Amino acid sequence: MVSGAILSDIKLAAELSPRTQRAIAEKAVQVDYMPGIELYQQGDPPSPLHMLLTGRVKLYRQSRDRCQILALPANGDSIGAESLPTGGTSPYAATTLTQVRALVISTVDLQVLLDELPDFQEAFLRLITERLKQFVTLVHDLAFRDVTSRLAMVLVARAEVEGRPQDGGVLFDRLLSQQEYADVVGTAREVVYRTFKRFEDDGLVSMTRRHILIRDLDTLRLIGQQESR
């Protein structure tokens, strides 16, 4: 059992009734994970629900030697258990990118909560719907935007959510390798390298091993909004 107050940091639970929050708190267990830990794999039975308090996770699908990163959930997000209502297998894998602290609810306890608490069931269905909309947007971007536009969108999104104002721009942790950035935008690592280099040459970004500095967020945002012709 965890403190009910901690649920105020979780989007899924923040607006639920006090009774429902208490029921969730009684079932949840706080767990700490090191970077690189697989929370669940693609094709696994329905996974426990993970409500992220701190840290970052990548959701991805693997096909032979190819990988597509689907999302990068962060503090306040909830992942896992999407296949519980249908009894199917997990549609994607989840691996920690950083140290992660999460509230975890087993599938057995989660099913009880969903059966007994209508407001939690509604919130859980909204979570699944929002995830589906996110994936539909990803499919659209992969189909109708080129690599330059897709990478610009990823950098803008990270700057807006995680960025810290600095002299000369907005700074955030690099977090991903160039291969992982390639897996996010659906291309080869060499293409991402050339695109980053072009952004640097144009004065839009600066990069170190640990950080990315966005120097011209407005121009990068315009690039991200362009669709292929």
- Can you tell me the CATH architecture of the largest domain? Sandwich
Q: At the first level of CATH, what is the class of the largest domain? A: Mainly Beta
Percent range for β-strand residues: 15-25%
Quaternary state reads: single chain
Mean pLDDT comes to 93
Estimated radius of gyration = 19 Å
Report helical residue fraction. Answer: 40-55%
Uncertain runs with pLDDT below 50, 5 residues or more?
none
Descriptive report:
The chain has 229 residues and is α+β, with helices and mostly antiparallel strands. It has 2 domains: 4-143, Sandwich (Jelly Rolls), CATH 2.60.120; 146-225, Orthogonal Bundle (Arc Repressor Mutant, subunit A). Helix content is 41%, strand content 24%. It has 7 helices and 12 strands. It has helices at residues 18-27, 107-116, 118-144, 147-162, 178-185, 189-201, 217-225, and strands spanning 29-33, 38-40, 49-54, 57-63, 66-71, 78-79, 93-96, 100-105, 164-166, 169-173, 205-207, 211-214. A 4-stranded antiparallel beta sheet has the order 1-8-3-6. It has a 4-stranded antiparallel beta sheet with strand order 2-7-4-5. A 4-stranded antiparallel beta sheet has the order 9-10-12-11. A hairpin with a 2-residue loop joins strand 9 (164-166) and strand 10. Helix 5 crosses helix 6. The longest helix has 27 residues, at 118-144. It is globular and about 55 Å long. The mean pLDDT is 93.
Features:
7 helices; 12 strands; alpha+beta; 2 domains; globular; Jelly Rolls; 41% helix; single chain; Arc Repressor Mutant, subunit A; four-stranded antiparallel sheet; 229 residues
